[in-house]
Design brief:
With 426 residues, the chain is of the alpha/beta class. It contains 13 helices and 13 strands. Residues 359-379 are annotated as: Disordered.
Length: 426
């Protein structure tokens, strides 16, 4: 009996893997060389770097080209990108914005900070992504915009969402923070809605440094409003002291853009490696009864910020907490990534329970609709049925083989236990 088929490590057996998984190492010598060269130029010329300079404009042009055209703006974070995109749409207040149940908190927080009410759309059954039917149930006369997020790098089915939005005359914001380079029907996500936002913080597919974000649109007029709203309300081309609206400073900068340009060039290779690894993972789990990688639609090409492993915990006879502990004991790093911001204390306190007269959501004329926990049963069910593996381009066949071996080992052990338990009760 080999370690891969022996007693579970959590029960005292030998783990499948004892060596740590490889770190991702987002930045390398290419980024360092580019930054060194950039500093050398600025020191030699005495022209200190700033925001909106040559490097930033070059990065933004390359980002837009990667997405087939349009206009891109580098900002300070993914959360800032969503804040800017929504602010530039100039939604009427009071009003509501439909947001996804599963997303990062930064994918919802800009809505109440703009004085709008987030209305939570459940995910499609078995998915971390919203679907058009779930969004439609959230629409009202107060709806001003729809935000969709491509969670884990898996594309939302955009055509039905766009058709719904067109029928109601609503703008669509695509949150692509976890989905750089993912494709839906042969086009990159972020090119379907009115405006798209990206996080470029360190752990994303491509990065502009510790924190960063991008706003992208094909609408020139909207782009000008994006530029204005991201830069303290300064009209494009106007004198620096001429602010035409109240707004905040979310500017990117040339140094971040230098890093981003190198990273953007690496993105196709990152995506190819991740897709290949997930293909191998899916094949390695083929034939298991209660464990597997969910299939994606044929018209989608995910970017895989993480990969979902769907579990039938009822058949395995184990809780998610127990399963995670056992998989980690086998040496496999894993977690559960299905954040539901509307279930967090800040949302309860600052959004749902806002008292009449409290700023900004408790205004007497604000739309008020109940939003109990039963509003997102599909999201909660999906969160309770999936383990996430943070597959990245530094993994090799060895890491995939070990992950498959550990997942197979757990399934066989737990199914044997449930079969034995059922036999004992007969």
């Amino acid at each position: 009996m080999t370690p891969r088929t022996a007693r579970l490590a959590v029960d005292g057996g030998e783990p499948v893997r004892t060596r740590p998984f490889p770190p991702r190492r987002v930045f390398g010598p290419e980024e360092r060389a580019a930054v060194d060269a950039f500093f050398a130029r600025t020191i030699e010329t005495g022209d200190d770097f700033r925001y909106g300079g040559d490097e930033q404009r070059a990065y933004e042009a390359e980002f837009a080209r990667y997405h087939g055209g349009g206009h891109a703006l580098l900002v300070s974070s993914g959360t800032a990108a969503l804040y800017v995109a929504l602010g530039a749409l100039e939604p009427r207040r009071p009003g509501e914005v439909v947001v996804p149940a599963v997303t990062d908190a930064g994918g919802v927080m800009p809505v109440p900070l703009l004085g709008l009410v987030p209305v939570v759309a459940d995910t499609a059954p078995g998915s971390f992504n919203v679907g058009a039917p779930q969004i439609e149930r959230c629409l009202s006369e107060w709806t001003r915009a729809i935000v969709v997020a491509h969670i884990g790098g898996e594309p939302v089915a955009m055509e039905p969402v766009l058709a719904l939005a067109r029928r109601h005359g609503l703008p669509v914001v695509e949150d692509c923070s976890q989905a750089h380079g993912a494709e839906y029907r042969g086009r990159p996500v972020g090119t379907f809605g009115d405006v798209a936002v990206y996080s470029t913080m360190t752990n994303k597919h491509h990065s502009t440094g510790g924190q960063g974000g991008v706003v992208h649109t094909r609408d020139p007029a909207l782009y000008e409003r994006i530029r204005r709203f991201s830069d303290r309300g300064k009209a494009a081309g106007a004198d620096a002291v001429r602010n035409v609206q109240a707004a905040l400073n979310f500017n990117g900068n040339d140094l971040a853009a230098v890093i981003g340009r190198v990273q953007l060039a690496k993105l196709p290779g990152v995506l190819a490696a991740r897709r290949d690894l997930v293909t191998r993972l899916r094949a390695g789990l083929h034939g298991l009864e209660a464990t597997g990688v969910p299939r994606v639609a044929a018209d989608c090409s995910p970017a895989y910020w993480f990969v979902r492993i769907r579990l039938d915990l009822a058949r395995l006879g184990v809780s998610m907490t127990e399963y995670l502990r056992a998989l980690r004991a086998e040496g496999i790093p894993c977690g559960v990534w299905a954040d539901i911001p509307a279930a967090e204390p800040w949302y309860e306190r600052q959004v749902r329970a806002a008292e009449p007269g409290a700023w900004p959501l408790g205004a007497a004329d604000r739309p008020r609709r109940p939003a109990g926990r039963a509003s997102w049963p599909n999201a909660e069910a999906a969160a309770g049925r999936h383990v996430t593996l943070f597959v990245h381009e530094r993994w090799t066949s060895r890491e995939i083989d070990d992950a498959c071996a550990a997942l197979t080992k757990l399934e066989r052990a737990y199914l044997a236990r449930t079969a034995s338990s059922k036999g004992a009760r007969r």
